[in-house]
Amino acid sequence: MADSSFDIVSKIDRQEADNALNQAHKEVEQRYDFKGTDASIAWSGEQILIKANSEERAKAVLDVFQSKLIKRGISLKSLDSGDPVASGKEYRITSSLKEGISQENAKKIGKIIRDEGPKTVKSQIQGDELRVTSKSRDDLQEVQRLLKAADLDVDLQFVNYR
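Structure tokens predicted for Nucleotide-binding protein DCP95_06935:
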């Protein structure tokens, strides 16, 4: 019997992220507590730029955006936000969405699989994803449970289950 396998990836649905940003933008424009504060949220190239006239307002806009991401099924582990920075009369927060598994995180995941996973399971780093193979599908499911329980700072999805 052939080996079974799946890939561990960290991807974001760009359309859902864009929808979350548009919803946050609408809410910021319409909410009473943001009236007259010049608060805004928008794409700036690949980054998300949040502007407001005070540090607390900028953090509140970020909070609105985070709640919209959660409602759209995007993990906050994939959002990388900086601290509010004063820029003239306004405060700015620059955020980005992380995709792909870094080499150090891939090595951590591989180590978890080797140390705590079933012995028949093999993992292999392929660019920004990991391929996990085994003869037993039950062992692969055990690895998925193990990684879901592990406290990693990256949002993982399991795809190409064969």
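The helical segments are 14-30, 55-71, 103-116, 137-149.
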